[in-house]
Amino acid sequence: MRRLCDDTDARRLLNPGPVAIVTTSWRAGANAAPIAWTSPLSMEPPLVGAVIHPHRHTADMIRFSEEFALNIPGPDLLKHTAFLGTQSGLNVNKIESAKLSTFAAQRIDAPLIEGCLAWIECGLQDVIPIGDHILFVGRVVRVQALDEAYAQLWLLNERRYSPLVYLGGTKYSVLGETLDANVEVDMQGGLVVETSEEREERQEREAREREEAFERTGE
Ligand SMILES: Cc1cc2nc3c(=O)[nH]c(=O)nc-3n(C[C@H](O)[C@H](O)[C@H](O)COP(=O)(O)O)c2cc1C
């Protein structure tokens, strides 16, 4: 059944991209805060967007330092990620209280978080007010990723090397399996939803499942 949702549900429905922990540094102070609202914006030049509420300390840190890094955590950093979102870094060193280790970025001063799967270093290209948030447009200046996690695309071979996604509240998920969408069209140009190979695979799988169910229950 289709159900009418609140207009604000749009944000939750679009949430599940990888969570990023934004790291910043300004005048010998460093900060880290998770954000779910990120987006690639341009290939050439390479630009990414971070949508941040103006009340966040991170928003000021980005404005002052004119740079930021997006650190992409996996499930091992689930609790650290949630913790960094519970308080402002204005008066506390959250990186220290979260017991996170950092290492030096290559092109910017903001620290990078150890234990993440990938790191995107950005210079600040633009600041665009959007509704009640601000879109910080980052010019990508360096990208690093773990071999185990990424090779031109997320590999998803192992759960611990798969990016964490944020569902809302205290709920997170990890990206699961890779699905291969090889699109085929029929003589009329319409989509072939199931190829003969896929039909065979499905029928075999269903037969296997029926057998397993029979062994379990005798029905
Ligand atoms: C998983 C997660 C995702 C979040 N996404 C965003 C976001 O996209 N934009 C934002 O402004 N705040 C977001 N928040 C809230 C900030 O992380 C939170 O307010 C944080 O305490 C800000 O820290 P700061 O004041 O040190 O910058 C998110 C929080 C969590 C836990």
Question: What labels would you give this structure?
Answer:
219 residues, alpha+beta, Pnp Oxidase, Chain A, seven-stranded antiparallel β-sheet, two-stranded antiparallel ribbon, 5 helices, 32% strand, binds flavin mononucleotide
- How many E strands? 11
Give the termini distance in whole angstroms: 31 Å
Number of domains: 2
Shape: elongated
Q: Fill in the CATH topology of the largest domain.
A: Pnp Oxidase, Chain A
The structural class is alpha+beta
Low-pLDDT segments:
none
Q: How many H/I helical runs?
A: 5
Order of helices and strands: HEEEEHEHHEEEEEEH
Beta content comes to 25-35%
Helix content: 10-25%
CATH class of the largest domain: Mainly Beta
CATH superfamily of the largest domain: Electron Transport, Fmn-binding Protein, Chain A
Major sheet size, sense and barrel closure: 7 strands, antiparallel
Which ligands are bound?
A: flavin mononucleotide
Q: Name the CATH architecture of the largest domain.
A: Roll
How much is the radius of gyration in Å?
A: 22 Å
Q: If strands are numbered along the chain, what order do they take across the biggest sheet?
A: 2-1-5-8-9-4-3
Mean pLDDT: 93
What does this molecule look like?
The chain is α+β, with helices and mostly antiparallel strands. The protein has 2 domains: 9-174, Roll (Pnp Oxidase, Chain A), CATH 2.30.110.10; 180-219. The chain is 21% helix and 32% strand. The protein contains 5 helices and 11 strands; from the N terminus they run αββββαβααββββββα. The strands form 3 sheets. Strands 2-1-5-8-9-4-3 form a 7-stranded antiparallel beta sheet. Strands 6-7 form a two-stranded antiparallel sheet. Strands 10-11 form a two-stranded antiparallel ribbon. The protein is elongated. The two termini are 31 Å apart.
